[in-house]
Design a protein that fits this description.
Layout (H helix, E strand, L loop, with lengths): L2 E3 L3 H5 L7 E6 L12 H5 L18 H10 E7 L13 E4 L10 E6 L6 E4 L5 H6 L14 H11 L5 E4 L6 H9 L2 E5 L3 H21 L1
Parallel strand pairs: 1-8, 2-3, 2-7, 4-6, 7-8
Antiparallel strand pairs: 3-5, 4-5
Helix pairs in contact: 5-6
Amino acid sequence: MSRFDNIDCMIGMAEYEDNHFDLAMVDPVYMNGFNTGMWVDVLGENKDYKNKTQTIEVKTTPDYFVELFRVSKNQIVFGGNYFQLPISRGWIVWDKDNSENNFSDCELAWTSFDVILRKYRYRWHGMLQEKMGRYKEERIHPTQKPTALYKWLLAKYAKDGDLILDTHVGSASSLIACEDMGFNYVAFEIDKDYYDAAQKRLKQFRSQLKLQL
């Protein structure tokens, strides 16, 4: 049975015993004092998530990682290069295939796996996305990642029957990937606006799935 709650992940994780989760796929805040307003000028688009009036002060502290490593057997941490994490050779590179624009060409994820470095290429910005709709997904969160990326992660790093943890759900791309591939999960999102938007996106996915069946 899966669970998705609008609570602080530190409160949520405290409910679980050691090594309860097989795999944590997380995208924690990369900077202290995260302010949603900063994304307006960076992305320069008219999206609902940039019109938020509520700003939640969020900090990713060392205590977060202590708790994350306590409750999960393995971890994939997006933005791992921003944190002081143990040495790992199993890094993941998401090549965004951006062409010429102001966005980063790649994003890095630290993993606890003792495996070779892997790269996944998936275009997330640019004319191809807008004109062809080939990779297009509704954007509801400033650090949203494509569902296809999470499905690739599950295929590469999870085993059948694994229980997945996501501490910072955001857009629910990870949860859609889990449901599409048959994984149960526990997930948390502290921001009520993003939580509601993620729940709406999950509902739309489930409705489309029923229509396909």
